[in-house]
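Protein 1 of 2
SEQ + STRUCT:
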Amino acid sequence: MTIEYSSTVWLAPFPPTLLKDKILCLWDRGDGLRCHDVLKGDALLLHLSSVHGCQGQDDTKLTCWWDGCAQHMKKRAIVAHIQDVHLGVTYPCRRCGITYGGKSSFELHLLGCPVLKK
């Protein structure tokens, strides 16, 4: 299996669709440089809170500093934002094969997946 470098993720060997894929953190450290820690996608919340101080799953306002983004949102939305917008994480349905770009859309699909109704 070949691993190639991209500016936002480590790809192995397909687009960053799985949370187990390794990613390169591009959070701005405040000095104009990016973090560049390599972590598993499912460790993103822990990394953001422990290394970058993005603690809490509440409605406190937060600015996304991933690769110069600067979009404002609630703290509880930061991980989903980074996964959906910056990493392109997708959620494929193993039952019917449809792929969703956001976790909430995928979860809604699971409630009414046509394959389950057969």
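Protein 2 of 2
SEQ + STRUCT:
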Amino acid sequence: MAGKKRCQFTGEQQCNSAALRIVGSCPHCRHDYCGNHRLPEHHACTNLQDCRQQAFERNKAKLESERTVAPKMAMA
């Protein structure tokens, strides 16, 4: 039987806590983390900037698709 997966955080000192099974896996860097390091901001995720840029682009496209233009206002 395999041992428990450990947190893969390597900061000032390595974390020895057990990794969370479902929510501990980072979808951006594909590593497993404990409850304290599971958020991308807390484990210095290498893909955090790409994640933020993608979220910015999705939000920008959504806002532009919902923008009210002058012809729509004249018809109302």
